Amino acid sequence: MSASSLSWDQAFLQPPVCDAWKDIMEGAAYHLASCIVLLGYMGGSGIFGSLYIFGFLAPGYFCYALWGWLSACGLDIFVWNMLLVLICLLQLAHLAYRLRRDTIREEFDLLYKTMYLPLQVPLEVYKEIVKCCEEQVQALVRDQNYAVEGKTPIDRLSLLLSGRVRVSQDGQFLHYVFPYQFLDSPEWESLRPSEEGTFQVTLTAETDCSFITWPRKKLYLLLRKDRYIARLFSSHLGYDISEKLYSLNEKLFAKFGLRFDIRLPSLYHVLGPASSEGESEDCEEPPPASGQADASAPPPQPPPPPPTAPRPRASRPDSDLLGEDSTSLVVEDFAELPGSFMDYVSEGEYMK
């Protein structure tokens, strides 16, 4: 056996025993270093936990180096601890760089938590989407037009972050666009990538607004490259357009409390409270007379009602509300449409 193997055997099987313990304790630097290292190892996981751990280990090892240089007078103790201090500082610099790289602006962070985090979209994918819009937030002052009907080309897709935008056509109010809704989703879906067109509506800011915008060609390249982002935009745009359709459906009021559903081509109606009461009263039949001679004889048919002249359209009683006017749609607006409710006698026949 060599001398080295004998020394290892003695170290593990027969370790040397201390002849005498020191009467004096180590200096304050040694005990301070031990306390700091103990606190450092209580950190958690993740990037912030790592910052906590290495933030305590660096000064702890530095205190050990001071103890080795001043009290223990050991060059090896000083060199090793200074090397550990350098490694901890490098690790802190790397973590700070990662934290700064992963940090996004407050507006984009709120957008991620509102629209993308509920869908469990990875943060790296979201950064690709934000990078496509160049991480810029644009502003609209009050009464400023985002698009003008028949003039503004459809060359971008924008998402409203704050404020409220009014959508109108030929001076007629259509609906509002609220935060975290697309400003021009119908225009985006109406054109193919190779087609060009202009806005058919006018979008005007009613308050100070902020929005982000994706250039059309740049966004098309991103959607073609990443199918996951393409499906994500497709779902967001479909939901946004359906919300706009429902907001338009709120304007389709008819007489007697009827409201139309614009999802069906025949404008399937939903009966309101007033119409339900009216139908129940109309369906009541008078009881037969007690002195009726022949019970089996059919009752006499009433004469057909005389044709009534078309009545002029009446303005809605709540036309003075914000966003409504006297040109809101009523049931006569759909009388000439094929397959509309006006062609049927009752709701049951319409549903057949």
TrEMBL record:
GO terms assigned for molecular function: cAMP binding
Listed transmembrane segments: 51-71, 77-97
UniProt-recorded name of the protein: POPD2 protein
Native organism: Dromas ardeola
Biological process terms in GO annotation: heart development; regulation of membrane potential; skeletal muscle tissue development; striated muscle cell differentiation
Keywords: Membrane, Transmembrane, Transmembrane helix
GO cellular component: sarcolemma
Gene3D superfamilies hit by this protein: Jelly Rolls
PANTHER family reported in the protein's UniProt record: POPEYE DOMAIN CONTAINING PROTEIN, POPEYE DOMAIN-CONTAINING PROTEIN 2
Entry-linked Pfam families: POPDC1-3
Record membrane topology: Multi-pass membrane protein
